[in-house]
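In practice, a research group might receive sequence data for several interacting partners and want a quick structural hypothesis before committing to experiments. The following worked case mirrors that situation: the sequences arrive first, and a predicted assembly follows.
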Amino acid sequence: MNPDSARGPYQPVEAQRIKARQLFEQNIRAANRCLATLPPHRVLLEQIARHGLPAAG
Amino acid sequence: MPIRKIVVVGGGSAGWITAGLIAASHARIPDSPIEVTLVESPQVGTIGVGEGTWPTMRSTLTQLGIPESTFVKVCSAAFKQGTRFNSWVDGGKHDVYYHPFTAPAGYPESGPAACWQQGRGDLSFTDSVSPQGMVCDRNLGPKQAGTPEYAGILNYGYHLDAGKFADLLTSHCTRTLGVRHIQDHITDIHTAENGDIESVQTPSHGRIAGDLFIDCSGMRSMLLGDHLGIPFVDQSRVLFNDTALAVQVPYADDGTPIASQTISSAREAGWIWDIGLSSRRGVGYVYSSRHGSEDQAREALHAYLEATGAPPGAGDSPRKISFSPGFREKFWHRNCVAVGMASGFIEPLEASALVMVELSARMIVEEMPANRSVMEIVARRFNDRFRYRWARIIDFLKLHYVLSQRDDTAYWRDNRSKESIPDSLQELLELWRFRPPSQTDFPHVDEIFSAASYQYVLYGMNPDSARTSRTSTRSFRRRATNTSFTA
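A structural hypothesis for the assembly, expressed as tokens:
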């Protein structure tokens, strides 16, 4: 149960490292977008109480 | 004999969700012969816990035909994006980790554990693979006001007021879905010649006959347990918590941030839940009565409320709930199937109660036996599926305790004793010393907890990542801001 156990023993290490790096950077971008665009939870609930949500589809 | 009359015994979330999903699925079939009746005693109150849901509730509400805006307003609901665990690893000041609902980046095609290693030393596991922990830290919602109903930027479930939810379901199921609602006390249960339940007796509505009975009578398990005698399988050897003290707490003012995650804070003999609704918080201490007294629990709850800004007196009159952790040996026997607490109940860590109701109701809908002669086959399949699910839930909950390094009380030490850990979990833990949890560890197509959930907890409770989770969030922001990408 430590970081070293997180890597399986027979993975193609270099390919996995490159893919993992891409995913890590993808997560950074996603986090920045979320932190910049998502409203405070209380504000969101107040807006839903006043105006509802757009219908799906 | 075709199955036509379905009688649900017991209201509350379990009864109404089940009745509603059956009625909704058959309402779409022209001339469907299925009739759904729900019998609810006006003398028996609902427990009113189960205030946290999984994201599955979104599809359940969609199937029921309830608009999300209506649900959020009527049930004082808020959005839940996962669980934050405080003080579970070592009880230290910076002991925090998240189990968010959004799957890790690249999951399941790519291993999120490898992704974490790329940010290792800098970030916690969750922050390396998902934005949701940081979003929760800032009390942000999972969607925007312009996001359509039941869609999200991030995955989410809900926190809800269970009493208001039952009222909404009652109104919707009776007025829109055609469920017949009988408010009467059940005084007797009549047995048919073949041993099935033939009818239930009520003082004002006489005998209510059915082809299939759904027991949603709560912990008493009136039909499956009391009447049909299906034994209870006690799990207190594995999961020690058997008592809860619950309170409702007003917000200090209209500007107080509303948490968008369940907060679970470990204590000496259990843990405290803190659930943010739009109108109030629901807070409770669930603990092991073998490891702590009620007075100690009250004191711990009071201290927590004081530390988290609750108004004076908020915790003075907690509601006490006692329960035996475990489940029934079978869930479907003869022409009776139990759903909700009538089938089993364990502590609310990871909020598995309502999702088990949803999954049970869906399987009943999908596999509704056409007639009595195939009911035994359906029952066997149902029992196999839910025995497996209970075992997986118990393993997953126990994982939180087994990984803890807390040594401050007998409660935490006892939780790590080998005899309290299911063999299935011991095997997995041995495997995970050498490789991450993988989908092959959980081979069913509809596993209740995915390998990603195991990874969130397993690596979230790694002492190193837990100790750095707070500072790492700040350094992540710096790093994210200062990094230029060429996507």
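Before designing any experiment, note the following. Residues 375-402 of chain B form the longest helix (28 residues). Chain B touches chain A through 74 residues (CB under 8 Å).
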